[in-house]
Automatic annotation (TrEMBL):
It comes from the Bacteria. The lineage of its organism: Bacteria, Pseudomonadati, Pseudomonadota, Betaproteobacteria, Neisseriales. SUPFAM superfamilies: Nudix. This is 8-oxo-dGTP diphosphatase. Its cofactor is Mg(2+). Pfam families: NUDIX. It catalyses: 8-oxo-GTP + H2O = 8-oxo-GMP + diphosphate + H(+); 8-oxo-dGTP + H2O = 8-oxo-dGMP + diphosphate + H(+). Residues 3-136 form the Nudix hydrolase domain.
Amino acid sequence: MSEAFCGAKAALFYQDRLLVYLRDDKAGLPFAACWDFPGGGREGQESPFACLQRETREEFGILLQPAQIIWQRSYPSWHQPGRLSFFMVGQLNAKQAQAIRFGEEGQCWDWMSAADYLAQPAAVPYLQQRLQDYLQSPAAARASAVLGR
């Protein structure tokens, strides 16, 4: 794994809704009080998926499996110049959606449609762009066809 990789975030769908959380409203916290996706910074030599899997377990109490990731792309990190971060898109199952237990980071969690997230003035801007990249990809069209959207 490249040493230039520093973290991973994911748009996780359950049916047609995204799992989102409202970041804490603390001075100095980037994107304070903004709607965010699961994920965070890399620890040790984690792979992008292992990073996301750990963060999702810590933040929401759910364990992702690699087969649930339907799209991923690396992007330049917005906060660590010269490094990469990964953005993934995945599908949660009903058991995971029902088992969510919100962790200690953030104010609350919710489900939000992709359109609502893209239009949300209090969403993390770079994640809005990454979600838009996915929605314009062939993978999104395939997922919509499979899910009957």
